[in-house]
Amino acid sequence: MSYDGFPPFISAQLKYLLNHYPHTIQIEQARSGTRYFPGSLDRFTLLIPYCLDYMKWDVIYNAEFPLAAPDVIFGAEDEDFHPFHVLCGEDGDSRLVKNSLTDWNNKDPTRLLALVIELRDKYRSYQEKRVGEVDDDRLKFEISTIVSREGIEMHMSSGVEKPEEVKFAVPLMNMNINKMVPACPWRHPQKIYLQVIFPVGRKYAPSPSAPRLKLMCTPELKALFSIDDVKLPSWVDGMCMAEYLPHLEELLQRQVLEAITLIDVRRQFIEALAPLLGRPLEADPIFCRKASFLVCSGPFTIMLHVFLSTNFPKQQPSLMFQSTQVIIFLHSSLKFMDLFICECHCLALLCMQVLLEGY
Prior knowledge:
It contains seven helices and 14 strands. By secondary structure, the chain is of the alpha+beta class. Helix 5 (241-277) packs across helix 7.
């Protein structure tokens, strides 16, 4: 991200936030709200991950008064979220409590990070309170069975045009996947989550319908493991999350371990191509998902790119051929083109032969 246009004190706080926040956070709609410094950006929108979605919060600094703490504007659905007020007394009056804005120091680059973390923690408590107040026996039972699991987030959504529903984000498997991948490049811990969405019902149903289920993961994990290829176990009538989750975690654990072993399978295939095609010019050294070879075949010099999916060898590799003789092609006959295609076909057969022979 470019920090051009932000005053130095805002730029320093943004850099610290992006580099130290435990999850991926995004910034958009940077803009200026000052009359006297129109080119100075002093407000922006933060996209903060929560419950497998993003909350959009507007952060409003004032470039004309740099000592002042920023304002934060929450989403329209959260108009009842007042994180720094607490009710006191029988009259229900509210008062401010000490928080990250109380002794704001604009020269401290860590302050915006501390503010975002505190607000997100309070928002999580706010949503848990909302969900706990829902008059739905099934939801109350579900919460009671999983309350001991760490890291669960929940969100209550409602509106005029959509039915009320409660969404859970359940982290799965107590595995440190980062440590299991040699030379792991990931900055943040990689996790797999189950999103569970229950409709809010006011009456008891003897056979309630199954919730909507979706498996999700942190974006970087897709380089190792295709979450879309996982077939979720069936939700049996009368089942609850506490019964469903152990079966799912056992399935995922096996598949993640298999995905890690497949790194070596892909590496061995690329190494087996080297005696035939030469040493790769470029190769993915960690996940072994791709490699590029410069090959002389007949009258041609060809760049061969080999792409391996996470399901290799069940899924065949993809091959892409590039000629270094583009100018020749522009002035050549169809016969010359046919010869090039024939050479590419021979190289493809060579790769398939290595695959079939088990390298």
